[in-house]
Amino acid sequence: MRLSVIVITRDEEAHIGDCLDSVAFADELIVLDSGSADRTCAIAHARGARVEASADWPGFGPQKNLALDLATGDWVLSIDADERVTPELARAIQRILSAPDADAYRIARLSNFCGRWIRHSGWWPDYVVRLFRRGAGRFTDAPVHERVEVQGRVGTLPGHFLHYPYASLEIFIDKINRYSTEAARAAFERGRRTSVLGPFGHGAWTFIRHYVLRRGFLDGWQGLVLAGMAATGSFYRYVKLYWLGRRPPS
Hints:
Elements: E1 3-9, H1 16-22, E2 28-33, H2 40-46, E3 50-53, H3 60-70, E4 75-78, E5 83-85, H4 87-98, E6 104-113, E7 116-118, E8 128-133, E9 137-139, E10 148-150, E11 154-163, H5 169-189, H6 198-213, H7 220-246
Parallel strand pairs: 1-2, 1-4, 2-3, 6-11
Antiparallel strand pairs: 4-8, 5-11, 6-7, 6-8, 9-10
């Protein structure tokens, strides 16, 4: 079975080399770039990847589907630039592709935040469907928090991705701002509305859920920061949703 790996990128020179090195066992490496101003494309070329450019940014789900359409392998592994396939996971993928017993596979993801591997706070095991038979899966059209919809049976692989999502707090804060804007817009378009008190209630509940119910307190000071950031993201999302509902129609 031939395996294609797909990655979407923009200004990922700090990550893309290690990412592609971790999937060097694949038969095809495809990088779909959306206007990188750094050395992302050059690094990907040097790793033997097929690098294509997209004319615009349609959102994470549609962009990943564009990358998926470029794949030619029997199976597809979707990986983000800030993720790595561990040797254990690489062996599991190669083994399962010799005799697949499902149409797609979910994979755990272990994330690092400020030097700590986060095993609580709702961050572990963080299963994501990423390996699937080409033709059996497509990404949803969600602008953020996209996922693979599978026609068929989904199994679970041993091993996990290593995930390095935030190089700094500034990047984390910027992502919260961008994601909350897109999430609020998507919710508004689905007809959702909120009251002026909604952001405060959602923010408080998000903090309790992450820090107490999901035992973020076991992740040290990083767990406290993550709970606060999650609460902030929820607050922003509902403030922006409220604002959209208050604006006069254009």
